[in-house]
Protein: Metalloprotease
Amino acid sequence: MSRPIRPVLIASAALAAVAIPQAGTIAQSGTGVVQSISAKDKQQGAEAHPQLVAEFGGAMTGMQAQYVESVGKKIAVQSGLSNAQSDFTVTLLNSPVNNAFAIPGGYVYTTRQLVALMNNEAELAAVLGHEVGHVAARHAAKRQSAATRNAVIGVLGSVLSGVLLKNSQVGQVLQQGFMQGSQLLTLKYSRGQETEADNLGIAYLNKAGYDPRAMSTVLGSLAAQNTLDARLMGSTDKVPEWASTHPDPASRVRTALTRAGSTAKGVTNRDLFLSRIAGLTYGDDPKQGIVDGHKFTHPDLKLTFTAPNGFYLVNGTRAVAITGQAGKAQFTTAAYAGDMDAYVRSAFASLTESGQQQITPGAISRTTVNGIPAAYALARVASGGSQVDVVVFAYEWAKDSAFHFITIVPAGNTALFDGMFQSMRRITAAEATAVKPRKLVVDTVKKGDTVQSLAKRMAYTAAQEDRFRVLNGLAAGATVTVGQKVKLVTY
Structure:
């Protein structure tokens, strides 16, 4: 949740309207028919690029970004879209979400979180090659022709489409807000298109001299991360897959390995890769706020709140999503002109889709929470065959700024979030200074080190060994050897 924060639902509508350029034109060359990046694609890509970068936390700079850029350009030229690396723009995004995507016009993206999950350069090339493959195969155009529009797809999308929100007007709009808060913008591809992109990525790996089996290993890591995330969320269902749109990576691992072949060939550049990504921020960037268990703290805005036990927080560019089995919520902001009653009513109005009957709250009440002026109201709305209660609880932070929660629970259960509402408070300068980011470090296994002893150094209080194994691509029961380089997450 970066600063300044624009209204989440307004931002969602704006990004959905971004004109994502279509696939490249077909041009004749002296070597036959190849795809090229058209002038129109370049123009449209250049127009979409700043908005995409802003939505994903901004572009990173420095050695790590330069390294990702060099690998991305090397693999992108294998697609035949262009023979010039300068025609491609490869961006490392400051996002804590596992995601990668590409758009026509030569624009390729990956998040720092996804890079941190990888274990060698060939895996980085595989992911970026997969995304370029979608562009080369014209998948975006084909999906649009099948009436699939550009949409914001969030990591909580499948969670929010459950019984609680099904067929609910407010649920549909709230879901858009949550999805926006998860920082993901992409198209939903079919399973066949994902397989085709995998195969193209493998072909690009071969042409660039990388070990083509890297497609299989990185998909394996993504599958393991999905499973771990689902367990940490307390869910028996898998959380949405890579970019919340790609079919389950676990179902593609064997196919990718078969396609690549089992014989070792090509380079992985593991040690070089690990040396280049060491020092990456892992998880939330303090400038966007930090999720630590059930607690969210924003050192720049100097605020903190705690969600109820059993709820999972996901920090996004425009909002913090809070989800559990008993209800959903988000924390965000909107324009504020000094009138709290008007602010609360506008928050309810933002939940109404164009052309739909507006959600009208009951009486707006005033209170004070830890010295902060606050206002709140409730509206009961239909959700399928039942009723749900929607609450907007807002805080006047300054004369020109305010923040608010939007919560949705089964009718009569609004007390579920009372503790969260009351937990909002300002933090001191000392507390703000104490908020530190988690960092990815690379260490060499020494004599006496074990998976268990190394995992104890992970900057988490729960699932340390599981996190360590997923981060390093280690299967259950696998051990480490002296001299081996491993990744750790520390403060």
Observations:
- Residues 8-150+187-282 form one domain.
